[in-house]
Amino acid sequence: MESYVTGAHDKDAALRFMKKTLKRHGRIETITTDGLRSTRRP
């Protein structure tokens, strides 16, 4: 089965995930990333 996901769908899914997570666990204090170049600040 083939699937096609748009960038807008990914963004909407990410926002839903974050809202659910914040509601369930409360406000976050830190964000930990895996250190990829794409997540580093310029």
Keywords:
single chain; 42 residues; mainly alpha; 1 helix; DDE domain-containing protein
Percent of residues in helices comes to: 40-55%
How many extended strands? 0
Order of helix and strand elements from N to C terminus: H
The rounded Rg comes to 14 Å
Biggest sheet features = none
How many helical stretches? Answer: 1
Inertia-based shape: flat
Taking the alpha carbons of the first and last residues, their distance comes to 39 Å
Strand content: under 5%
Low-confidence stretches: none
Mean pLDDT: 73
- The helix/strand class is mainly alpha
Summarize the structure in words:
The chain has 42 residues and is an all-alpha fold. The chain has one helix spanning 7-25. The radius of gyration is 14 Å and the shape is flat. The N and C termini lie far apart (39 Å). It comes from Candidatus Andeanibacterium colombiense. This is DDE domain-containing protein.
Produce the secondary structure layout.
Blueprint lengths: L6 H19 L17
Task: Write a brief caption for the model.
The protein is mostly helical and 42 residues long. 45% of the residues lie in helices and 0% in strands.
